[in-house]
Amino acid sequence: MFFRAFVWITFLSTLLVYSSVLVSPSAVWPSGFLAMLIPFLLVFHLFFVIWFIRKRKKRALFFLAMLLLGWPFLRATFTWSSHAYSDSTNLKVLSYNVRVFNNYEQFRNETYQSSEEMINWAVSHKADIKCFQEFYNSDEKELFNTIERLQSAGWEHHHQKIRATDKSGATFSLNIFSKLPMIKKGVIYSSQGEFQNAIYADVFWNEDTIRVYNLHLQSMHIDENDIVDSENLKKSYKMTGWRMRKGFERRAVQTDHIVDHIEKSPHPVILCGDLNELPYSYTYYVLRRHLGNSFEAAGKGFGFTYSGKLFFLRIDNQFFSDSLKAEEYHVRRDMSESDHYPIEVVYTAKP
């Protein structure tokens, strides 16, 4: 009797949590918090599968069914792909949140060594297209004259949306750099004229045009130290919860506007960016319903992209249209100067 009640509670809870990714937090805000329970639920089901298999009981089949019901989440968590290709007309795309190249006082040192290493790496990386979030440029400082440095190195085609300018005239922006010609450039706004944290550029490649999006969705402005430190979390949980709620709501609205724009694209799409969302969220699965995910298609392992204390997060992504194929996916952990690792993906066109 107890086990039957346990099964029903587990079944209904699983359906509720799994289906939360289908509900926009802008309409029902608790769905954003429910979706965060998905990885714990997967571990819960896996534990009981193993437990009952060891006990040689058929009850393991129920938990196995619940685990398989969450297959899309399992695939978004861990994958192991193996691709062999010889197409010389491949396209390499880099996406990187550079955290203003560590120009913030709390990250830089006297010699700006980490800034120099990051900028040199970003300039020398061989990707055909580079999408940067939290990009910093100063025409007055040789080290941080990053736009000119990238263009001089061969990425002469450039599109940006400046989000802020400091007193010295230095800019903070979203950027797309390309070795390939840009035919059209644009910024995504809502019908009320509000910037939706996304830009795009139509790039000529392989005798065709592809539309490259770069986005940096709403941050929750939560200090990771407050989450890691249990005492700080207790003191600030109300504010943390409020910021998380507003972040879920804002990103859901931004995602809806971006997806509307994608649906109207006359060209195949590659979408890069920092989602500020886990792969168990409304944002991720709305994009996933329209586009393939490069990690799921060509990644290996867990693909964590955050290099801070919350190292188990995969919040940076690249998505792509059906007419393209992700052949290789790499998280560049050799470049750890930012709080995000760069991700690079190699694409080919399907026949």
How does this structure look, described?
This protein is α+β, with helices and mostly antiparallel strands. Helices cover 37% and strands 26% of the residues. The protein has helices at 2-19, 30-35, 38-54, 60-69, 71-77, 113-124, 146-152, 224-228, 230-263, 282-290, 294-298, and strands at residues 79-80, 91-97, 129-137, 157-165, 171-178, 182-189, 195-205, 208-216, 269-274, 292-293, 300-301, 316-320, 324-331, 343-349. The model has no long low-confidence stretch (mean pLDDT 93).
Mean pLDDT across all residues, rounded?
Answer: 93
At CATH level 2, the architecture of the largest domain is: 4-Layer Sandwich
Question: What is the count of distinct domains?
Answer: 2
Order of helices and strands: HHHHHEEHEHEEEEEHHEHEHEEEE
| Number of helical stretches of at least 4 residues | 11
Principal-axis shape: globular
**Unreliably modeled segments:** none
Number of β-strand runs: 14
CATH topology of the largest domain: Deoxyribonuclease I, Chain A
CATH hierarchy, class of the largest domain: Alpha Beta
Rounded radius of gyration (Å) = 21 Å
Structural class: alpha+beta
Helix content: 25-40%
| Main β-sheet, spatial strand arrangement | 4-5-3-2-14-13
Q: What labels would you give this structure?
A:
six-stranded mixed sheet, alpha+beta, Deoxyribonuclease I, Chain A, 351 residues, 14 strands, 11 helices, 26% strand, 37% helix
Provide a quick synopsis of the model.
The model has no long low-confidence stretch (mean pLDDT 93). The chain is an alpha+beta fold. Strands 4-5-3-2-14-13 form a six-stranded mixed sheet. It has a six-stranded mixed sheet with strand order 6-7-8-9-12-10.
